[in-house]
Design goal:
By secondary structure, the chain is of the alpha+beta class. It has 15 helices and 5 strands. The longest helix has about 35 residues.
Length: about 375
């Protein structure tokens, strides 16, 4: 009998807590209960810290540093050597160059008699932190006093450049494209959608017909055509911004239609009518009242849209229709694995794939968590 009474009392206490707290505190409370979404948020934070903000610090080498180790295999850290001796400090084995008589090609084999200890916070190539602060400390590396000591966690490419370092630098471009293109996508979609829903009439007709026109074209052929239209003579920075803007401007129609529907239902709310009766301008009503009321929906859409933008950039760059070398992105890195010969001779070219997959998966889990958290009053 006591348990039967206690359970409803606990539910009443939870309902009272929900009523007494603000909307965003309830959203945060419900989001923290979704462990997968919290883990995904930490993974994405790690991505943006290591790839977008501080890749020069976390990468042992610069993205363009070439070496004599052409398509060298990865050198994985070890704590136990071939003789069974344990070491608290991790180390990597050296690599010896050999000629494969069968394939008449050069390859590198592990030399277990040569060990190079790994150190943290070592002096290396000079760089500018955040593009402003001169520095030369790297998160990890080998003894800087030994020029023969090298560490290639994910192998090297056909020019002897460290793949791990290039994946970190490539993540800066791909992740920034996802953020910047979604920012443009949100600005255009939310603004035009709000104007269409608030004003109606000719504005609504024009905006909706444009969205229908954009949705009438199949996405993949349209992206391929626009990517092929970018002149090959353009510098990499111009191509980068052009690809980013194209990705955003083609896909804003769906968001505009959703925001239009929310604004249509919200423009007759009491707070909007009160603002209009006090003489508030249309601009103030739209940007201070109607658009903020749609933010919970827009945030979820943005979180789920970023991975799509990253995949589109990767696909276009892989096909040679987006970013091209020497610009380093995850898509251009995948170009190294576009032949059977490349994959068979250097399968570590595919190591960029898990970085892309985990980023996409983390964004999807975060978006699902935010979608549930934005409705905090549901069970």
């Amino acid at each position: 009998m006591t348990d039967a009474v206690a359970i409803p009392m606990e539910e009443k206490k939870k309902d009272a807590v929900k009523i007494s707290q603000s909307y965003w505190s309830l959203v945060w409370w419900k989001f923290k209960r979704n462990r997968l979404a919290v883990v995904a948020a930490f993974i994405l934070a790690g991505y943006y810290i290591t790839c977008l903000i501080f890749p020069e610090f976390f990468a042992p080498y610069s993205k363009g540093l070439e070496s004599d180790y052409i398509e060298a295999r990865p050198t994985y850290p070890h704590f136990v050597d071939a003789a069974g001796s344990f070491s608290l400090r991790p180390f990597v084995y050296g690599l010896d160059e050999e000629i494969d008589v069968a394939t008449r090609s050069r390859k590198f084999v592990v030399n277990e008699s040569v060990k190079y200890p790994l150190y943290f916070f070592v002096e290396g190539e000079p760089y500018k932190l955040l593009g402003l602060i001169p520095a030369k400390t790297h998160f990890f590396g080998t003894d800087p006093a030994n020029p023969d000591a090298k560490v290639f966690l994910l192998g090297t490419d056909r020019l002897g450049r460290d793949q791990f370092s290039r994946i970190l630098f490539g993540g800066r471009i791909s992740l920034f494209i996802g953020l910047f293109s979604v920012a443009v996508f949100l600005f255009v979609g939310v603004t035009l959608g709000a104007a269409s829903g608030y004003y109606g009439g000719a504005t609504d007709i024009v905006v909706m017909r444009i969205t229908e026109l954009l949705s009438a074209f199949p996405q993949e052929p349209l992206f391929l055509a626009l990517g092929a239209a970018v002149p090959v003579s353009w510098p990499s920075t111009r191509v980068f911004f052009m690809v980013t803007i194209l990705l955003a401007l083609i896909q804003w129609g769906g968001l505009a239609r959703q925001v239009r529907g929310l604004v249509l239902s919200g423009r007759e709310e009491q707070y909007v009518l009160a603002a209009r009766s006090f003489g508030a301008s249309d601009r103030r009503i739209i940007f201070n009242h109607l658009i903020p009321a749609t933010m919970s929906h827009v945030i979820v859409i943005a979180t789920l849209k970023i991975p799509g933008m990253i995949l589109l950039e990767t696909a276009l760059s892989f096909l040679g229709l987006g970013l091209v070398p020497p610009t380093v992105s995850w898509g251009t890195l995948l170009q190294n694995a576009n032949t059977v010969r490349s994959i068979s001779a250097a399968p570590w070219y595919l190591f960029v794939t898990p970085f892309i997959l985990f980023a996409i998966l983390a964004y999807n889990l975060l978006g699902d968590g935010l979608r549930d958290a934005m409705d905090p009053y549901s069970k």
